[in-house]
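Hi support team,

I'm opening this ticket because the web form for multi-chain structure prediction keeps timing out on my end. I have pasted the exact lines I submitted so you can reproduce it. The total is 633 residues across two entries, so I didn't expect it to be a heavy job. Is there a limit I'm missing, or should I split the entries? Thanks in advance, R.K.
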Amino acid sequence: MRSPEIATDPAPAPGARSRVRLQGDWTLRALSYRLQSFRAQLAGRRDDVAWSLTDISRLDSFGAALMWHAWGRRWPASIEIPDDLRAIIGRVAASAESPLPRVRRFNIVDAVIVLGSALLAFRDHVLDFTRLLGQLCLDLAYLMRHPAEWPLREISANVYKAGFKAMPVAALVGFLIGVVMSYLSALQLRAFGADVFIVNILGLGIIRELGPVLVSVLVAGRSGSAMTAQLGVMRVTEEIDALAAMGVSRTLRLILPKVIALTLAMPLLVLWTSSVALLGGMLSAWLQLDLGMAFFIERLPQVVPLANLVIGFAKGAVFGLMIALVACHFGLRVSPNTESLSANTTASVVSSITVVILVDALFAIATRSIGIPR
Amino acid sequence: MNTKPVIELRGIVTRFGATVVHDGLDLTVHRGEVVALVGGSGSGKTTLLRHIIGLTRPAAGEVSVFGAPLFSGSAREQRTRRRRFGVLFQHGALFSAMNVAENIGFPLRELRLATDAEIANLVALKLSLVELEPATALLMPAELSGGMVKRVALARALALEPELLLLDEPTAGLDPDRSMAFVELVLSLQRQLGLTVVLVTHDVDTLAALATKIAILSDRRIVSCVSLEETMELDHPFVESFFRRPFGLRAGIRGGGVR
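Hello R.K., no limit was hit. The queue was backed up. Here is the completed structure from your submission:
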């Protein structure tokens, strides 16, 4: 490898052009060390000097592009150049003449198009979601008539993955939230001398509201994203197509088990998390307010009607159903590239949490006169 | 400089768990050669290619590229060495979040040497080099056909003006017409740019058209590395099954024609 050089011969006579000789290897690798100085030396004197390229031993398209752009994309007025190098620079010059198409600037029409396509995309989502829901109902009807084909193994696997394996983290989060809630309420209640009402606050709050929502957020982040990513990658690697080719219904084998499993597992997780949260609250109340655990446990069923437990269970089941449906819906929309996978996984988690909170609001309105002692 | 081999593998041993894939394998590739690595499925062709790229390291033995061990020298020297070869992965390995022009310009942009105008110019040049329309520049990899993906990947592999080109199954997944066109493209680029090429292939037509030497990987080592005509003369069970079966017929005819 000969390093590239620029040599300048002084002008032979006053008024004549001085000669600039380029020497050595003009390749990407050789040029990279002193590129800026070369670029500066080449630029700005295209027609002022006589160029000689006869001493160049190697020239690649990077070197050619460097010269061509430094010369302002025109041949110098005076140049001495072998034919093969002229051909290399000529190719670069030709491709500079036919530039790449540019991405068009964003204008008002594009804004309208973006808005319109967002609306159409929303319509697509609604249609797809309805179709998925309908297909699941058809699958359920089919399974009712052919009980031997229930995908029990897949359901149990999903209950294990989404339910059992989520127990430690759910317990940890539930316990801490219970402690925090109890601690903060205790400070206030003590000021009013209303210590005993901590049982009402924790019981109602956790069993009816906080337990189900907390678990939903956890499960949406943990299992919802996993379901979307799994289905998405199966689409990317054509595994779903392979299933279809074998005549195995993807909804029956992949989606229904997930939906059923999460609908079954979520109420149990809610029960588990709520009990651990209550345990945390109970401990904190005992330490803070000196409220005995036996008293707490005795008083809980008196102030929290059983209906609340049923509502908590129902919420858990419905939230689980929604999370699994949303996760599968987005998983099936993944197209085979990494960008789409990440976008759909994000959309899946965000949408399922939003849907859960919306449904929770509906629950709050629908059950406003149930299970609240007056 | 010309006498120094571009790639030199000495005593390569590769193990996956208990299975030994390569056992004391030697291979030398000189400047300007087009070497095709052939061998049965699971004989470790792609693994060998990954050793040369430096994605995996052999359990024993030494990989030398451009006259120096692959992992010798400072991080900067290693990087410079790596930039002297371009790799075409089997499935293209285009970055799916970038369009075609960004994919091809990516290595140049990473160098932080060229200006935007130069990069656009060079990308246009590489696109015309692999015989793609300038309009493809704005397409995303997901919108390309299999043949176009290979061409774009080849353009990206050529972005840093490599001296050595490594191709993993360059024609797999292309129909015969397109794979012949792709082979001719690689061949013309090889002549134009004076490249050294190492390719892994299963396709007899591809290697008959492209390779100046054929390295046969069998029994955990390179059993021969000679030209196609000489390979056809060899008395080896792999040559028998790979080249002389009906599938290898066309290559045989072509090989005979060259002679």
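A quick check on our side: The mean pLDDT of chain A is 88. Let us know if the file doesn't open in your viewer.
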